[in-house]
């Protein structure tokens, strides 16, 4: 898996799934090779950044030729473990959590939600969008039983840390946090927080400043 044998910057790591997606698009359109400038135009990422990102993995391309599209697709598929599906648990089936269940990820990615937890679930499991939803009392037993290491957290803020503390004791390695709470976790547990309100406020800030800059 990526990161175990190659030490790369975090910013580069976050762009790898994007590279994989756009290279797949090129491959599906029948393109055999692509330059960093063509990738730059398609992805709206500076060509120098793309070349620097790729350089972390050795000689992926040739000067004057560019990059072999199918080779890069295969390379990033293996780097991102796209051939191995990762099972995910969803905790919190409110409006956002319900949207996750309806979408599920395995249709387009290498992850799939196989179980969910919510107070409206039962100890026996209530099916929603084809996914069994259990009562939170069963989290520890079910996650241990299924060997799940990745969790999507979309619970009310008041219980976010409590749930996280429980997850930290049962071997969970990663949490995709959709609550506004900055979670406290041990070093063995990685948290990525997506605060939708902050992202929206940031977007509004940039839009307003873009308008100001255009009138200067």
Automatic annotation (TrEMBL):
SUPFAM superfamilies: NAD(P)-binding Rossmann-fold domains, Winged helix' DNA-binding domain
Keywords on record: Cytoplasm, DNA-binding, NAD, Repressor, Transcription, Transcription regulation
Cell compartments where the protein resides: Cytoplasm
CoA-binding domain boundaries: 81-182
DNA-binding region: 18-57
Domain of life, source organism: Bacteria
Binding site for NAD(+): 92-97
Gene3D superfamilies listed in its UniProt record: NAD(P)-binding Rossmann-like Domain, Winged helix-like DNA-binding domain superfamily/Winged helix DNA-binding domain
InterPro entries for this protein: CoA-bd (IPR003781), NAD(P)-bd_dom_sf (IPR036291), Rex_bacilli-type (IPR058203), Rex_DNA-bd_C_dom (IPR009718), Tscrpt_rep_Rex (IPR022876), WH-like_DNA-bd_sf (IPR036388), WH_DNA-bd_sf (IPR036390)
Subunit structure: Homodimer.
Family of this protein: Belongs to the transcriptional regulatory Rex family.
PANTHER family xrefs: REDOX-SENSING TRANSCRIPTIONAL REPRESSOR REX, REDOX-SENSING TRANSCRIPTIONAL REPRESSOR REX 1
Function: Modulates transcription in response to changes in cellular NADH/NAD(+) redox state.
HAMAP family: Rex
Protein name: Redox-sensing transcriptional repressor Rex
Biological source species: Sporosarcina psychrophila
């Amino acid at each position: 898996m990526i990161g175990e044998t190659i030490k790369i910057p975090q910013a580069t790591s976050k762009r790898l799934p994007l590279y994989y997606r756009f290279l797949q698009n090129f491959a599906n359109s029948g393109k055999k090779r692509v330059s960093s400038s063509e990738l730059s135009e398609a992805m709206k990422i500076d060509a120098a950044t793309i070349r620097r990102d790729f350089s972390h993995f050795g000689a992926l391309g040739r000067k004057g030729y560019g990059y072999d599209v199918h080779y890069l697709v295969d390379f990033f598929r293996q780097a991102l473990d796209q051939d191995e599906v990762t099972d995910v648990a969803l905790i919190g089936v409110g409006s956002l959590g319900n949207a996750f269940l309806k979408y599920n990820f395995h249709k387009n990615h290498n992850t799939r939600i196989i179980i969910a937890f919510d107070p409206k679930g039962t100890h026996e499991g209530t099916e929603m969008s084809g996914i069994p939803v259990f009562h939170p009392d069963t989290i520890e037993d079910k996650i241990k039983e299924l060997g799940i290491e990745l969790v999507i957290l979309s619970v009310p803020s008041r219980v976010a840390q409590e749930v996280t503390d429980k997850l930290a004791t049962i071997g969970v390695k990663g949490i995709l946090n959709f609550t506004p709470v900055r979670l406290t976790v041990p070093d063995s547990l990685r948290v990525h927080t997506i605060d939708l309100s902050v992202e929206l406020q940031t977007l509004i800030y940039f839009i307003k400043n873009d308008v100001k800059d255009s009138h200067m």
